[in-house]
Amino acid sequence: MALVGAAAGYCFAVSLRLSIAGLSVALALLVSQGLGIPVAHTPEALLFATLGGVLQAAFSLCVWVTQGTCRHLGAHMGAQVTARPLSEAAWNWGGGIRELRSNLTLRSTSARHALRFGSALAAGVAAYWLLGMHEHGFWIPLTILFVLRPEEGETFHRLILRAVGTAAGLVIATALSFWLNDDGVALAVALTIATAFAYGLLTVQYALFTAAITTYAVLLADTLGEPAFEAAGQRALATAIGIAIAGASFLIWSNPREEAAPGAAR
């Protein structure tokens, strides 16, 4: 986890697109650690995961084609349609490699983030195994993965939003669980609404996204037979530990204070 996390963190040196790819790989490894799938079933798991990724890509392609068609029709009808051109630098492999090489120094914010990110994720995984939190312990490194960023200010801002959103989500989910009283249909509707809000709010406001995804996670545990109050307590504890590890990682090893010169490593 330390190696994968460090590689994912270092992707921030190139672009947001590459960093999302790196975080997705780290997230897949985090989730798979708690599944307990026998080694013999690994090919099947890989197949299902691949099919899921292909379906997501196909859906994105359909949206892109639909937008292109709507733009074409709008132009024919005289509507003012502004297309956002895709930057050539987004696919500049040579530039990406140069960025990775130029940031191979501890004076680089990206290199420091890579080491900090990998170490924090490894500490999070170790914490939930040592504490015996096998059911919900992956929320510790998951919290670290979502809140830890190369910039100190952004990280501590997300830590606060994560804490507030988690607290709100735990209250909402626990209240809904007692109110719905194991009604399968009502729980399914609540899970669907929580998922829709989570995806809809992901790029809008991080605290609201956290509240929605927390509601979903606790209600899902309730449908699997775990008492909502117990699931909420485990999630709260795991989130608190993850926040503490992420915050401590910056307090132990912060970024360089001096301003980087133009063209220098970042």
Description:
By secondary structure, the chain is an all-alpha fold. It has a domain at 2-36 and 103-252. It has ten helices and no strands. Helix 1 (2-10) runs antiparallel to helix 2 (16-33), helix 5 runs antiparallel to helix 10 and helix 8 packs antiparallel against helix 9 (206-223). It starts with a helix and ends in a 14-residue tail after the last helix.
Rg estimate, integer Å? 21 Å
Distance between the termini: 24 Å
Number of helices: 10
Q: Spans with pLDDT under 50 lasting ≥5 residues?
A: 79-84, 258-266
| Range of helix content | over 70%
Query: Which strand-content bin applies to the residues?
Result: under 5%
Elements, N to C (H/E): HHHHHHHHHH
Quaternary organisation: single chain
Biggest beta sheet attributes? none
User: Based on DSSP secondary structure assignment, what is the total number of beta strands?
Assistant: 0
Q: Which structural class matches the secondary elements? A: mainly alpha
Average pLDDT works out at 82
Cα shape: globular
